[in-house]
Amino acid sequence: MAALLHAGGQSAAEMAEVAERLTEVAEHLELHAPTREQRLVDMWAGEGVTRHDPVTGPENAVAPPLALGGLPDGSIEGRVTLGLPYQGPPGCVHGGVSALLLDHTLGVANHWAGVSGMTGTLTLRYHRPTPLFEELVVRARQVSVDGRKIRTTGEIVAGGEVCVSAEGLFIDKHLPRPGRGAARD
Amino acid sequence: MAALLHAGGQSAAEMAEVAERLTEVAEHLELHAPTREQRLVDMWAGEGVTRHDPVTGPENAVAPPLALGGLPDGSIEGRVTLGLPYQGPPGCVHGGVSALLLDHTLGVANHWAGVSGMTGTLTLRYHRPTPLFEELVVRARQVSVDGRKIRTTGEIVAGGEVCVSAEGLFIDKHLPRPGRGAARD
């Protein structure tokens, strides 16, 4: 995928032949694929760690992938270097890609802290351009749990400086809404 | 890319052979690719419309791609149906992918309105799960320009209901900062 984008339209490679070879591979895979319904069951049948998400999933070609790990202080951290497929402004990471990485990392930080929820609000602040081709540190931590409301923060750091920071408000759907008595989704 | 993820680890396809064929294609492409520096020049040499971004770019396999068009009322709109590579919760679009689509669409709405800037703050509100495999409408419009500050909003709609809404504050770097006299970046 990265090689395709790197080559570009000016490449001397035989692009029609490349397209034909990729189509052949896709057709071969589709011939042997389970139904969509069966695949959706299979991909969620594990023990909580998914391999298919668009940020950390090693089986998802969209994912950089970012490898996240839990730290003893309760936070989550990962390192990643992004190439051309993730470009926004020239030579810089797309702001929406930074949002994607942070949204996911905040969710993993909630999981690591033991209380998870659905994203209610996510606020991103862009402090400086995030560089391509340089190692980025992506971090997040759960800050507070107040009833159903979970607050989580994170940031993307390059060369020791914060490029993007994020604040998320997550809602724990397992707890009842105030004044409603019983849990409902 | 979608076929690989759809097939999954339980597939009867010869995955080692698939990996070998994909590696061969990548090596062929890399052999004919320009240097990274040259490619960065080439990919930004057009007339403002890029073909490589991770949201709308037809040359970027990461992109769904979303096809955006300008409307006579000054807003921007596009339609897209997302599959397994963009999954967050089971059967739903990843919240970070929605953020990626909206960040980009807000930027395009600014461009369409004639005044663009760098993203300062982006706030996303998640109203209901965004479905996979259903047509989504992605919309954005520039709301106001006040000195350097540009405000832009957008939403992702499925079946007539807003799933995610976004508000962006963009900074026009072409104008001087208040009280500083001259433009600087």
**Could you give the distance between the termini of chain A?**
39 Å
Low-confidence sequence ranges of chain A: 181-185
The fold-level CATH name of the largest domain in chain A is: Thiol Ester Dehydrase, Chain A
Structural class of chain A: alpha+beta
Number of domains of chain A: 2
Can you walk me through this structure?
- Chains A, B: InterPro entries: HotDog_dom_sf, PTE-AB_protein, RHA1_ro05818_N, Thioestr_dom.
- Chains A, B: It comes from Nocardioides deserti.
- Chains A, B: This is PaaI family thioesterase.
- Chains A, B: Residues 2-37 form the RHA1-ro05818 N-terminal helical domain.
- Chains A, B: Residues 91-161 form the Thioesterase domain.
- By secondary structure, chain A is an alpha+beta fold.
- Chain A has two domains: 5-33; 64-171, Roll (Thiol Ester Dehydrase, Chain A), CATH 3.10.129.10.
- Chain A is 28% helix and 28% strand.
- Chain A has helices spanning 2-7, 15-32, 36-43, 95-113; strands at residues 67-70, 76-81, 118-126, 135-146, 149-158, 161-171.
- Chain A has a six-stranded antiparallel β-sheet with strand order 1-2-4-5-6-3, covered by helices on one side.
- In chain A, strand 5 (149-158) and strand 6 (161-171) form a beta hairpin.
- Chain A is flat and about 60 Å long.
- At the A-B interface, helix 1, helix 2, helix 3, helix 4 and strand 3 of A face helix 1, helix 2, helix 3, helix 4 and strand 3 of B.
- Strand 3 of chain A pairs antiparallel with strand 3 (118-126) of chain B.
